[in-house]
Amino acid sequence: MSEFIINNKCVLNGEVSVSGSKNAALPIMAASILVPGKISLKNIPSLSDIDIMADILKCIGASVSFHGDLIIDASNIENSSAPPDLCTQIRASFLVAGPLLARFKRAQVPLPGGCPIGSRPVDLHLKGFKALGADYIIEDGFVKLTCSELKGTNIYLDFPSVGATQNIIMASATAKGTTVIENSASEPEITDLADFLNKCGANIKGAGTDTITIVGVKELNPCTHSVIPDRIEAGTFMVGAALTGGSIRLKNVNCSHLSAISSKLAEMGLTINEFSNELSVSSSGIKKHTDIKTLPFPGFPTDMQAQFAALMCQSDGTSVITETVFENRFMYIPELVRMNADIKLDGRCAIIKGGTQLVGAKVRASDLRAGAALVLAGLCADGKTIVNDAQYIKRGYDNLEQKLKNLGADVNYIL
Ligand code: EPZ
Fold this sequence. Notes:
The chain is an alpha+beta fold. It is 31% helix and 24% strand.
């Protein structure tokens, strides 16, 4: 069980270069199944989730290698059944279902299972596959999909699910005819997937809006693509500057992906300056209280609410976080309370009393973003904080320990 140790509080100052987006890289890696030939992916972060997706692709017959860029050649894939031992480790493994179904007219993929933040169903993914002409059964924990051919159609998503939107885009890219996804997710990671597939010869329009049109094409060809910066890693460092009273300049960011985060930090009294692909965050010391409601993009991202909760503990009043996307995303709160936070839970709301000095303690990461929030809390707490189960953090943050050290933090990561 690994530990992330924060030896004492600090002020984060300096520059940090944000890595490529985990949540853009994972679907694009899955989409490589659709593209016979050698694709080259740039700006891929070094994360355990990326390694697991690479192993899944290797298991089904793709060649995958890292030479600075990530090179994937799916020409010789023959196996349409994904490996359960690897798939059950990451939720994003279910994103191979659409590409496998499109390429082989069948797919056998383990149900990704729930995780700490919620049950994580895949009913909307299956609704899309069925609408495109596939049949499926769920047996022994697997979804077993078959079809004679996939035909374009209109699909309404009851919730703008990121994963379901991605799976339907991949399943329909080479289907016969046109597919329209209504009430689709509009996250930047959806747009990046569409950009990658269009570079390979797909015909996808409307990505980034709530209606996406995919005109099926006969085949896709390899390309080179650089994934977008990780907006959640960027947001995490922005909160780090706010919470420690420092000033950080972030490089390799897309400011338009950070609007909700920047707006909320500005409401709290932070100074945000945007440049072409850089952004600076400076604290004047004051942290005004504010309220947050998580929503699908362009609303406030659910992946940032834990980090803001740590910041709100220091604000000048009471703040409320309402979580509307996942049903169980407040597991970090008892851990913050162990650090002297004053937070009450009321259903989907967390009521956070400001003006509390956090105190270092032994705490436990329940999931990736909870772990990041606890590290941030340790950076402004009196005394030492040890975050157990810190392997969760490695899933989504590329070299967080070194990046924080470069900004002035006294931290260690122990395997
Ligand atoms: C993606 O998960 C991200 N993961 C999550 O980031 C992120 O929190 C989430 O989108 C929301 O933005 C990746 O991209 C790998 P959803 P995903 O399908 O696709 C319900 C992180 O920390 N739903 O948009 O699984 C679901 O239960 C991770 O980087 C259905 O009901 O999210 C949830 O309540 C955590 N039926 C809501 O939709 C379905 O078929 C949002 O899920 C699918 C989803």
